[in-house]
Amino acid sequence: QLQLVESGGGSVQPGGSLTLSCAASGFSLDLHAVGWIRQAPGKEREGVSCDSSNGGDTYYSDSVKGRFTISRDNAKNIVYLQMNGLKPEDTAVYYCAVDQLRGATVQDMCIEETYLYGMDYLGLGTLVTVSS
N or C terminus: which one in the chain shows less Cβ crowding within 10 Å? Predict the structure, then answer.
């Protein structure tokens, strides 16, 4: 069964850090582009970071650039999102996403609505709340 399971969400004060993990089962992450998508209450989905299958191309949204880092451990089939300097506006449900892209770029994966709302695989999400 193909599955993505996120973990690591929680509540944190502004300026704090969290590391999200996404464990994949039923397929190998090293053959796919991976990404983290978030959705705040009442807002559209936003592509936070997307990474190509060979790690040669990585996209970060302007809102998180310099604060968040995406990484993967292909041997463990896990994708991570290290989040530092968290802000209240980072509060959202964070989803792990996987896609074969089929000629598209990681920027497409993180920006285009066809990908944000139509990923090959999407986890159930983990809630991140940033407040004082």
Answer: N
Half-sphere exposure of 53 (CA within 13 A, CB side): 13
Query: Which is nearest to 67 in space by CA: 57, 47, 82, 51?
Result: 82
Q: Which helix (H) or strand (E) holds 122?
A: strand 121-122
What is the DSSP code (8-state) at residue 34? E
pLDDT tens by residue, the chain, 132 residues? 789 999 999 999 999 999 999 999 998 888 899 999 999 999 999 999 999 987 789 999 999 999 999 999 989 999 999 999 999 999 999 999 999 988 899 999 999 999 999 999 999 999 999 999
Phi and psi (nearest 5°) for 107? Answer: -65, -40
**What CA–CA distances, in Å, run from 6 to 30, 42, 49, 85, 126?**
17, 22, 15, 21, 6
